[in-house]
């Protein structure tokens, strides 16, 4: 059972990383040479607009795409399990003495683990959202530059 949970956690983390990397590349606009620009001219304009957008937004798509995902795995937790065990032991000890403290600590560890997993998911979602927002900002600037040079952007 523990191996299944561990495998599903790693699968979810891997899927999130693949999705984040794919989402960053999927946002690039489609460029059409509306004024009959040659392939060489389009390539030159593309490079110049890429550099202009990078300089004006401060966003480097290569750095955003290669940014490491937030840490994950069983070592991450920020102490939620320990704090949960302490809280559970305190409450259990008040209610039912020594046996209650042990039971409360066990329940607290489980609740703390759930909080740790919830925090991990929130961090991953936030990182993915930030990455997508940065790429959208970059590609808006890039598209504006290409549009200014006579290309149709979709």
Describe this structure as you would to a colleague.
Helix 1 runs parallel beside helix 4 (80-148) and helix 2 (39-57) crosses helix 4 (80-148). 77% of the residues lie in helices and 3% in strands. The chain is built from 4 helices and 2 strands. The chain has one domain (2-153). By secondary structure, the protein is an all-alpha fold.
Keywords:
rod-shaped, 4 helices, 3% strand, mainly alpha, 154 residues
Structurally, the number of domains stands at 1
If strands are numbered along the chain, what order do they take across the biggest sheet?
Answer: 1-2
> What's the helix-strand series?
HEHHHE
Average pLDDT, to the nearest integer?
75
Overall form: rod-shaped
Instruction: Please report the total strand number as a whole number.
Output: 2
Brief overview, please?
By secondary structure, this protein is mostly helical.
List the helices and strands and how they pair.
Elements: H1 2-26, E1 31-32, H2 39-57, H3 61-65, H4 80-148, E2 152-153
Antiparallel strand pairs: 1-2
Helix pairs in contact: 1-4, 2-4
